[in-house]
Fold this protein.
Amino acid sequence: MNNAAVLNRRSFMVASLTGGVVLTLDASLTLAAAAPGAAPDVLNAFVRINADNTVTIGAKNPEIGQGVKVMLPMLIAEEMDLAWEQVRIEQTDADEKLYGPQVAGGSTATPRNWLPMRQVGAGARAMLVAAAAKQWGVDAGALTTARGAVLHKASGKSLTYASLGKAAAAEAAPDLAKVALKDPAKFTIIGQSKMGVDVPKIVKGEPLFGIDTRVPGMVHAAVMKCPAHGGTVASFDDAAVKAIPGVIAVIAVNSGFVPEGKTDTLLIVADSWWKASKAREKLVVKWDDAAVTGFSTAKYEKDAAALFAQTPQASLFKAGDADAALAKAAKVIKADYDYPFLAHASLEPQNCTALFKDGKLEIWVPSQNPGQGRAETAKLCGLSPDDLTIHLTRMGGGFGRRLMNDYMVIAGQAAKALPGKPVKVLYDRTDDFRHDFYRPAGWHRFTAGLDAGGALVALKNHFVTFGKDGKPIRAAQMAITEYPAPVVPNVDLDVSYMATNLATGWLRAPSSNAMSFVFQSFMDEVAEAAGIDLPELMRRTLGAPREIPGERVAFHTGRARAVIDAVCKNAGWKGRQKGRGFGFYFSHLGYFAEVVDIGVSDGVVKIDKVWMAGDVGSQIINPINALHQAQGAAIEGLGQAMIGQKLVQEMGAITAENFGDFALMRIDAVPREIAVEFLKTDFPPTGLGEPALPPVIPALANAIYATTGKRHRRLPLEMI
Amino acid sequence: MSVSLTVNGRKRVVDSDADKPLLWVLREDLDMPGTKFGCGAGLCGACTVHLDGEAVRSCQTPISDAAGKAITTIEGVAASAIGKRVTDAWVALDVPQCGYCQAGQIMSATALLKQNAKPSAEDIDGWMSGNICRCSTYLRIRAAIRQAAGLPAEVALFDAADGEQVA
């Protein structure tokens, strides 16, 4: 699936990592300046061979802690036949014309790059082999490669890549679609655990993150944005602010959330962020927000109840005749579920540094989606996208927050207003909570019917979500293939939309992090009504191994069945029992089944252990990182469920100020152990940033029900 | 005001407002960005440094309170034997994911082992619960502290050689 080569021949041949043999990073995190026309050892946009036979590999995707900065270079290094010790990794700039897609989102890096990055490596290897063949006057087919050298077995001759670099760079680049790739049985890097490339720097506190960017002459901006989303600046009085020594300017900008020509954000620029932040107290602003102050958590609850009392606004999916099947059903199960708005709360607050000079905008940014940021920033700055140079920094977490580029958009406008002065914009924690793009809340009314034999014959779900003009807003949709809808003969999936002024967006495992709870919890109720446990209900409904087509991707019942069986075996699952719960979910092409073991004492729930079995295809590229991603996802999911995470809105604005109002998981609530098994199957490798998260939430809710008899149908779970 | 500090063994003098937090003096005035801004309210632990050997939240420490005191930050923590063992364990177990909180985690862990050489599992969780890791690297934080303290692994650790969890 989705293995289309994204790198065309042109991008392969264009040299990007140009420059001297020695790579250096300056304090401002920019890459070493390119030396025009003086790059004989650059084989393609991703590969530079250094004189000491180390090889610098460009990591093109944004790094948010998901390990992609190691994973993508592993693919190139493997096909180049390098020893890992030779590899030096460098974050590339954002330049999709050169590198192809550069997005950290949707667990897409693996499926999108598994073949293309290997082809890049194999192409570079082919050029080195061709150069050696010419030099020795032998056939390229007689040559092999290993550990950064080309070998001619017949004569015993060998040449390092460094000694072939110049000649190889002059070779014609091969057609990447036709270049031969390694037999996976011969992998020496893929499938071996490689540690985080930046870890030695992280433990020394070296500057790596966007917030650490330092450019000579830089000034700092604190943010004041209309608390009620969608409100605009009516007027402001900055006289008192400007009187503060060190304050340089107050600039009104558009975060991209209000119509062009309006502004919704004021930036206080000073010679210190601390000073700028404090100066906000003196800024007097009148907001034009009457149209959006009516939105609140209480209003949504009321609107959802009213919508449930009405006929759904639209049908998403219909099969058979659900009402008729329910009328004949031996048992009918009804339940309502809901979940709240959530913030991303990446630990590094949103920030961006920008410099406008000679009509060009240079940007240093922690963005998961810099291509979109380039387009939007260019538009709001009145520039061409090609006028922007974007340097990617390491990110202090992303979780989907940094797929949106509001911080880049406003930093660009601030820089444009102060030509020649680099400006670093930094949100404080309250800004970060109140001006996020939230995981939307949602409400679900379920009805299911079982026949006399206990088979699930009817399913209805009225989903109340947020929409505009009869369509869901960003991240507020439900797939019509939510399991078990595709395998039940009589189904009604319906929807009603209500309005919100809040910006919404994708939170790690978007949609799935909510739907897993709703559907797998309700399925646990259905299973109990049928006198079985949830794994058994899943097995019965999944049926024979086959692919079920979906809106965008197919769902393989056999792969689902295999992870369910594996986790049950590993955990010693023996049917419904106190102290444990089960959940399964398919998202982002990954199949995960999880068991959560809990203890309850004095009414307090403590999570002891999580068991997990996952299938993300034929190859775990970096096993240690895969384990870390899976374990971290499970803990994050538990955090969404168990520690009271929810946002409250009043008068159009989110009320949370800091971590006291929106708890994040802390070490004392974390289970002692999370046991992970990856099943290797004959399918292309897919991503791991997200799919391990969703099942843990219903598994916990189902464990609490099994243990205490209380069915929780609302997130966050009340843990006592 | 002019403030004299000792940062990682080196005398530094800064001219600063008395109420400016140590965090921002380190980051802005001393060009030491290893100490991180997370919440500005003492709730996340990302800004943890040692002040005369005690772990403090530098976002809640006005520079006037740090005057004349010895400050250790992530940039200098490995100069002590315990700090070195902690950072070595952090690298060996590949603890960080995004890495943003890890300076604070390491500073807290080092302070723990300085006053409790062989902490129990409960000691570790209790002491470290002031430090948030949004990526949830907590299993490895526990393991790395135990490794730095010379304690046996509590649960299966990852064996990088064969890609499996081992006892």
